[in-house]
Amino acid sequence: MNLLEDSWLPFLLKNGEVKYRPPSAMADPDVINLALPRADFQGAAYQFLIGLLQTAIPPKTHDDWLDLLMEPPSVDALDKAFAPFSSAFELDGDGPRFMQDIDLLEDVKNATVSGLLIDAPGANGIKNNTDFFVKRGRVEVMCDACAAIALYIMQINAPAGGAGIRVGLRGGGPLTTLVMPESSDASLWERLWLNVITQKETIQKGQQWSTPHPEEPSLFFWMANTRVSDKKGTEVLPEDTHPLHAYWSMPRRFRLLFEEADECPCDICGRKTQRVVRELRAKKQGANYDGPWLHPLTPYRRDPKKPNELPLSSKGQPGGLGYRHWSGFVLNDEDNSGAIAAVVLKSYIEKQVVVRDARRFDSDIPELLREARLWVFGYDMDKMKPRGWYSVEMPLVEIPPGQQERLRVWVQQLTDLSRNIAWMVRTQVKNAWFSRPSDAKGDMSAIDNQFYDVTQPEFFKALSALQQVLQQDSPPPHIPSDISERWYFALKREAMRVFEELALSGAQENMDLERATAAHRQLQSFLGGKSKGSKVVSDFIQQGDFDPSARAKRNAASAASTTGDA
């Protein structure tokens, strides 16, 4: 199967149909999305297609990028653009194979194809019978299409696997951040092209741009002799590769073993095919990535106090992803918090400027970038063990030139307040539950997560309001009082509600009312900025220049007038 020529990807059409077509179908205006059978496959297919576009038709400038946003290529034109790379995307055959070792690996034992799935139990889990939740034997056969995307996922996300088993270019379990159109019926072309960057933006320190070519061994490692890492000095650094290699990294050595089948159903997608994969060969000591890699689709973080240390990709964490992570994904802050937004997010900000300027002369240019969303996805890994898969969407806002740092500071103030209040809610719930809360064992993060979940809608309302303020000719130096006050009272209201739901709603015989009442009082005092340790609350109130008691008096007066007691 050739991954550029054959119909192997499921595309979702406007009428709700799903059709399998070649990658060039992404240019069909009737195609609005992909329809892969697994969430991780969906995210990987997006990255695969973005990598194809980045390789075959990389825009030189943002103006070139805008031209193709306005007038997408036809399916035929995209086929012609992909055609020169066909030899690098053969999945089977006697020559080089897509993301597979050029060596036949006949000196290793065959393994099951489920080894391509990050969430499949490892050899030790099967040997020790510890595969309690992720069971063995779920996937014993894959069609060639599912095997292709599973292979791609493993190569671009390869987790830790033991001595000699190399980790992916981004480290194990990296998060991916993509820019998505706000409209649910936007074309797939728009969804993908929003995440294509200019040639200059792909270049990392020490690299030089050259026209991509399928025989270029520093771009597609599988087209040349294997880069083995069994000795020191064989590390793969950014300056050793083509700028686009980050999209096609290959840390693992695999050979898929194809076999003919008679209408055999795939254990993943259920389709019956004539060609399947049941086994593969895998060998250690593949490409060993090292150095300051920055994948264009992944956010990173570094310690500002240790500038010589390598940046680390942002990872999925227990408790999920939400608004408290938004700033680190979107707003670059390398000097203070150490957050490094993905190149694709930095490019998005530049594209906003280009589109805004272009609309002055041509009102037909779509305001596509004014309303967009951030799609964040990836595995939460504990070394080689997956704890979960996260996929969330959050709003993006149009950031005026020169106002990114001010927005970052404001967002930091909002999230610092919510983080401290979440901590206090958890602390007082524990105080209500336990006579010796400091000795209480177990993971209490669910309390924090509940608080973050219920306050998330209000955060994005505040973010939208801040966007409006920053679009003024002379925005104020501080968060406007009305926005600060609304955010403070939203947090206070939900903090009390979460506490009361968890600490006061149980059976009376299981509750220590004296303990719960004391915890309730402590929480109220903290939220009012009047207790020891509540300086973050009192500082926020002071900086916001609002009087919490004034609102309480207004509410009381309004209630009195409604009931006729005034």
Structure commentary:
By secondary structure, the chain is an alpha+beta fold. The protein is 36% helix and 14% strand. The chain has 15 helices and 13 strands. The chain has helices spanning 39-56, 62-70, 75-82, 123-127, 144-157, 188-193, 199-202, 326-330, 343-359, 404-433, 445-470, 481-503, 513-527, 535-544, 548-563; strands at 9-13, 18-21, 31-34, 110-112, 142-143, 176-181, 253-265, 272-283, 300-301, 312-313, 339-340, 372-382, 385-396. The strands form 4 sheets. Strands 4, 5, 7 and 8 form a 4-stranded antiparallel beta sheet that branches. A 3-stranded antiparallel beta sheet has the order 2-1-3. The protein has a 3-stranded antiparallel beta sheet with strand order 6-12-13. The radius of gyration is 27 Å and the shape is globular. The relative contact order is 0.10. Residues 123-136 have low confidence and may be disordered.
Quickly list its features.
14% strand, 13 strands, three-stranded antiparallel β-sheet, 36% helix, 566 residues, alpha+beta, single chain, four-stranded antiparallel β-sheet, 15 helices
